[in-house]
Automatic annotation (TrEMBL), chain B:
Species assigned in the record: Halorubrum halodurans
Gene Ontology terms for molecular function: 4 iron, 4 sulfur cluster binding; heme binding; metal ion binding; oxidoreductase activity
PANTHER family for the chain: FERREDOXIN--NITRITE REDUCTASE, CHLOROPLASTIC
Source taxon at top rank: Archaea
Stated family: Belongs to the nitrite and sulfite reductase 4Fe-4S domain family.
Protein name: Ferredoxin--nitrite reductase
Keywords assigned by UniProt, alphabetized: 4Fe-4S, Heme, Iron, Iron-sulfur, Metal-binding, Oxidoreductase
Domain Nitrite/Sulfite reductase ferredoxin-like per the UniProt entry, residue ranges: 52-89, 96-127, 337-398
Domain Nitrite/sulphite reductase 4Fe-4S, first and last residues per copy: 137-303, 413-552
Pfam families membership: NIR_SIR (PF01077), NIR_SIR_ferr (PF03460)
Presence of the UniProt keyword Transcription in the record: no
Length: 102, 594
């Protein structure tokens, strides 16, 4: 089954199979050395830029701001959840997200 | 690659959406195929329906576009009756109750908790009374705005109301202009006060004098009898959204009133053909004006979109603009003002633009009893009762309803504007309307303006879309998140010193991520510094202008006070922030068809 993924509402939501599933305005902890100087960025998710899928893993690039150091910008691809048996399951919001490393 | 939205629009868009909408209404919300929801919700916007946020499945916000904010006699009553009958849902607002209407910053009306199955009946009632939701949202001509008291205002240079009516009739439902790359917001103002707020619209017509020969179709300065004609200068490419605010730019064109429609249609066609359909973020015409510059916009308009010689810009009256200017008098239309015909218009303050259905109905009755029955809406979310003769004025001002919707409110009540926020809007980061009401009430009791400062505008928007026009206020507040004692809390970025007027300026964002419960204290502290360090007679905007960001950041000084904020937690993770059991898992089911 193919999964339909899109960014809606000017970047405020990720829609998975026509249901709004992942929202902006959460705080995510990131292990993303490319984004800012912090060991662990504390990112306010402001806008989803793109959404994609890597195997079963749904990923996104977000525009946001690290509230620990103030840096703003667009992240690399970050995991947000996975599709299991046709159902989307969002990763726990308190988990640390690691940017994809090729 | 065209976006999903462009693909959906190329399949079905514009007037034809209505048939489908009515069919879904007939067969029930669940008849919308699961894999077509995103597409249909996008399309429904064209007919003024916005699906509410997660957890409010099956409920819609409905926007009624009232051109220039004009409600003809009887129409406000119709709105009140519809709100009373249909704008009720599973959630009750602790301040406003059930069934209310929101008056918006673009002179429209929004109702909430509308069920799809009721849409045909509501449309019928609206349309038989001359009202419509057509193109109230979506990628096309939105509600045309202006000075709401056009045709009556003592400060009028030219009556813009016939022009606006003509634009409305020409471009609503017009298939050639129904599918634009993005929204298209037009303002036409005929008064010398700037109350049409043209500078923040995609296309603005503002009053200007021009020496032309003959009947207005002549060819420029110096050629004619020297008599100045009154018409409009044209500006293009304003807008506040997306952290990329722009003021509309002067394209050096003057038009007589009878040609506004040709020029407006030409520019809307130019946008249709040249706007960016590949990237919705870049689609608004403000970005095309950035890229092209105003000269090329003018040249293209002249070469490809109008079949007469454009005049160069005329002499404007911008130096007289006061609306939302942060200085001088008449920053809004609240209070009693003279009409040209000797009667009065009375602007009433509607705190954050929200009014319960019972009050809407009572206001409609008062307008009929003391005025002509007409009511108009301003861009500061307020209402204006027109045509009140001198001999009825005192009785009108003593009506009970005016205790709540005052013509002479506290500056903190009067200056408050707030968008929809997490209560209904899927973009929002924080709670807004009720919070702004709490802020205004607290500030009224606890903060003071220096002597001689009568107005102070605080605008709160839940996200960067900027529906509450935060960047043109004395204090701009915008939804954010931060951590307080390790916990995520709703926060606000604070900007200062924005305003329109002859030389408009956007607020500067000086302090970031103030936890929402510390914002009233921050504003009170800021006002104390203003009072202490103000130069004789200085306006707040001028005070801000002569300080740098660092100094201003220090003046803001967030502080906990006895202000309590019950909505500090993540209101976005609820199905309705004010519900007793607010968790998303407790969301009500899709409303059953009846
Ligand atoms: C239920 C959801 C929403 C509600 C209740 C809402 C409410 C409003 C209101 C009251 C206004 C004032 C203007 C008017 O009457 O036209 C407005 C304007 C605006 N809205 Fe929304 N809105 C919603 C969703 C959205 C979405 C999804 C977007 C973006 C895709 C958006 C972007 C804007 C922008 C950019 C403005 C005006 C700012 C400017 O002039 O550039 N809104 N909205
Ligand atoms: S400013 Fe943002 S949160 Fe407020 S109504 Fe507009 S889109 Fe929604
Ligand atoms: Zn950081």
């Amino acid at each position: 089954m193919t999964t339909s993924l899109r960014v809606l509402d000017d970047g405020a939501w990720i829609s998975v199979d026509d249901h709004r599933e992942v929202r902006v305005s959460e705080l995510w902890r990131l292990d993303a050395p490319g984004f800012c100087g912090c060991d662990m960025a504390d990112l306010v998710v402001e806008n989803f830029q793109e959404v994609g899928v890597d195997g079963a893993r749904v990923e996104t690039r977000v525009h946001g701001q690290c509230i620990a150091c103030g840096e703003t910008g667009v992240t690399d691809w970050l995991p947000v959840g996975r599709v299991r048996g046709g159902e989307f399951v969002e990763y726990d919001r308190s988990c640390v997200r690691r940017t994809r490393r090729e | 690659m065209p976006t999903d939205v462009e693909n959906w629009k190329s399949e079905v868009y514009g007037n034809e959406i209505r048939e489908h909408l009515f069919e879904f209404a007939e067969r029930g919300f669940d008849s919308i195929p699961d894999d077509e929801r995103d597409a249909w919700f996008e399309r429904f916007k064209w007919w003024g329906l916005y699906h509410q946020r997660n957890g409010q499945e099956g409920y819609f916000m409905m926007r009624i576009g009232t051109p220039n904010g004009v409600l003809e006699p009887g129409q406000l009553r119709v709105v009140g009756e519809i709100a009373d009958e249909y704008a009720r849902g599973p959630g009750t607002n602790p301040i406003f109750g059930d069934a209310y209407a929101d008056f918006t910053t673009r002179q429209s009306i929004q109702l909430h908790w509308i069920e799809l199955s009721d849409v045909p009946a509501i449309f019928e009632k609206l349309e038989t009374n001359g009202l419509s939701t057509q193109q109230a949202c979506g990628d096309s001509w939105r509600n045309v705005v202006g000075n709401p008291v056009a045709g009556k205002d003592g400060r009028e240079v030219i009556d813009a109301w016939p022009v606006i009516r003509d634009l409305n009739e020409t471009f609503k439902g017009n298939d050639d202009h129904a599918n634009l790359p993005r929204k298209w917001k037009v303002s036409v103002t005929g008064s010398a006060d700037g109350s049409g707020q043209g500078d923040i619209n995609d296309l603005a017509f503002e009053p200007a004098y021009k020496a032309v020969d003959g009947n207005g179709s002549g060819s420029g300065e110096g050629g004619g009898s020297g008599e100045d004609a009154v018409g409009f200068n044209v500006r293009v490419g304003g807008g506040l959204a997306r952290n990329e605010p722009r003021f509309a730019r002067d394209i050096d064109v003057w038009v007589p009133p009878e040609r506004v429609s040709d020029v407006a249609g030409g520019l809307s066609a130019l946008f249709r053909d040249h706007g960016d359909r590949e990237d919705r973020y870049n689609a608004r015409i403000k970005f095309l004006v950035d890229e092209w510059g105003p000269e090329r916009v003018r040249e293209t308009l002249q070469a490809d979109y109008v079949d007469f010689e454009l005049e160069t810009a005329g002499r404007d009256v911008r130096e007289e603009y006061t609306y939302n200017a942060g200085e001088g008098e008449r920053n809004d239309l609240v209070g009693v003002h003279d009409q040209k015909d000797g009667r009065n218009f009375v602007g009433l303050n509607v705190l954050v633009g929200r009014m319960g259905a019972a009050d809407v109905l009572e206001l409609a009755d008062l307008a009929a009893e003391y005025g002509s029955g007409e009511v108009r809406l301003s861009q500061r979310q307020n209402v204006v009762v027109t045509d009140v003769p001198d001999e009825k004025l005192d009785d009108f001002l003593e009506s009970d309803l005016l205790e709540h919707y005052s013509p002479s409110p506290s500056p903190f009540m009067r200056g408050s504007v707030a968008c929809t926020g997490t209560e209904f809007c899927s973009l929002s980061i924080v709670e807004t309307k009720n919070r702004q009401v709490r802020f205004a009430r607290w500030l009224k009791e606890n903060a003071e303006l220096p002597d001689g400062v009568e107005e102070f505008h605080v605008h709160l928007s839940g996200c960067t879309a900027s529906c509450a026009q935060p960047q043109i206020a004395d204090v701009s507040l915008r939804g954010m998140k931060t951590r307080k004692d390790g916990e995520p809390v709703e926060a606000l970025d604070v900007g200062l010193g924005g305003g329109l007027g002859e030389e408009p300026g956007f607020a500067r964002w000086v302090t970031q991520r103030v936890p929402a419960d510390e914002v009233p204290g921050a504003i009170a502290n800021l006002l104390e510094r203003f009072a202490d360090e103000r130069e004789e007679g200085e306006s707040f905007r001028a005070f801000v202008a002569r300080h740098d960001d660092e100094e201003l950041d220090a003046f803001v000084d967030p502080e906990e006070t006895d202000y309590e904020d019950p909505m500090l937690h993540n209101t976005k993770r609820t199905w309705y922030p004010y519900a007793e059991n607010d968790a998303l898992d407790d969301a009500p089911p899709v409303p059953a068809d009846d």
